[in-house]
Amino acid sequence: MLEKNSQLLQVIHLRKNFGAIQAVKDVSFDIAPAEIVAIVGDNGAGKSTVAKVISGAYRRDGGEMLWNGGPYEPHEPDDARDIGIETMYQDLALVNDLDAAGNIFLNREPTRRLFRFLPLLDHKQMRERSAELLRRVKIELPSYDRPVRQLSGGQRQATAIGRILLSERARLIIMDEPTAALGVQEQRKVLELIRNLSDHGMAVMIISHNLEHVFTVSQRVIVLRGGEVAGIVSTAEVQKQDVVSLIMGGGA
Ligand SMILES: Nc1ncnc2c1ncn2[C@@H]1O[C@H](COP(=O)(O)OP(=O)(O)O)[C@@H](O)[C@H]1O
Ligand SMILES: [Mg+2]
């Protein structure tokens, strides 16, 4: 067991309602630094809601969260980003007409001054820095100056990752179904990427329906059912069938 204060994130008796719907009734779990944790559960189990409360998109109705042992109360996603929690949403939130470098630097563009008064986006610098960021996690994009609408699903995802890596603060990356829309080859790359992120000291919380992927990449699996924790298991110590039973409510 890790000491309490060595945890990166602690979620304690979390609760979130939407009117009469109790999306999250009572969810507690920890994430250690650089740990890869999977969240699984049937449709409607509360996975995305938990992720959105952690990432500051929703305000919780009960319970508490601790970040590095101190109180964590995000009011908006920027509060999460400021302390190092980055979220990759399923739609990736990319601007299709912009190139990869433009997306990675969106709203954070470096400018150089032309004739001292006309600010110019420094595209060369943005492309070089983008490529350098992605090389760190062993990703090569074929092009940094083509609109991202022309890139494959995996390359678009790599672009979203580049955005996250630009924030040097990132300590926890939340991914909601990152492999769902990808081909088999690119799915494998995403799993590799998740391991690379962890090797670079980042914890990853991955929500996935694919138990094959979950068992390949994660150290622990948190099973949600009906807004509650049905079980938390070490991937090395259980079989897929055990996790399926927890998801379905048949016991471990
Ligand atoms: N914005 C929302 N408004 C109302 N109900 C919601 C909203 N988001 C989720 N829910 C409900 O909360 C429950 C949990 O949803 P969700 O967290 O998306 O589950 P999962 O991601 O595990 O499929 C479901 O019953 C869902 O219909
Ligand atoms: Mg969901």
Detailed description of the structure:
The chain contains eight helices and twelve strands. It has 252 residues and is of the alpha/beta class. It has two domains: 166 residues, Rossmann fold; 74 residues, no CATH class. It has a six-stranded mixed beta sheet with strand order 6-9-10-3-11-12, with helices on both faces. A hairpin with a 2-residue loop joins strand 11 and strand 12. Helix 5 runs parallel beside helix 6. It is globular and about 55 Å long. Bound molecules: adenosine-5'-diphosphate and magnesium ion. Magnesium ion binds next to helix 1. The site of magnesium ion (MG) has 2 residues, from helix 1.
What amount of the residues lies in strands? 25-35%
Give average pLDDT, whole number: 89
Please give the alpha-carbon distance between the first and last residues: 21 Å
- Looking at CATH, the homologous superfamily of the largest domain is P-loop containing nucleotide triphosphate hydrolases
Helix content: 25-40%
CATH class of the largest domain: Alpha Beta
Class by SSE composition: alpha/beta
| Uncertain parts | none
CATH architecture of the largest domain: 3-Layer(aba) Sandwich
Give the topology string: H per helix, E per strand: EEEHEEHEHEEHHEHEHEEH
User: How does the major sheet shape up?
Assistant: 6 strands, mixed
Q: List the domain count as a whole number.
A: 2
CATH topology of the largest domain: Rossmann fold
Give the overall form: globular
Strand order of the largest sheet: 6-9-10-3-11-12
Helix segment tally: 8
Number of strands: 12
Bound molecule types: adenosine-5'-diphosphate, magnesium ion
Q: Return Rg in Å.
A: 19 Å
